[in-house]
Known about the structure:
This protein has one helix at 2-52.
Amino acid sequence: MGLFWNLIQQSQISEHNSRAASLEARVAQLEHELRKTQELLIKTLQILEEHSGKDLDGDGKIGGIN
C-alpha cells in the first residue's frame, strides 16, 4: 500500500508542477501583453495631444514622452 500511495503522491506533485509551470507561462504572456498595450496607449495619447494641441495627461507637455 505504501508504494501505491507514493505513486499517487508523485503523480499529484507532477500534475501540480505542470499546472504551476503553465500558470507562470500565462502570467509572463499577460505581462508582455500589458507592456505592449501600455506602449500603444502612450503612443495613442501622444498623437491625440499633438492633434488636439492639448495636454490630455496632465504632464505639462503636448505630445512628448512623459
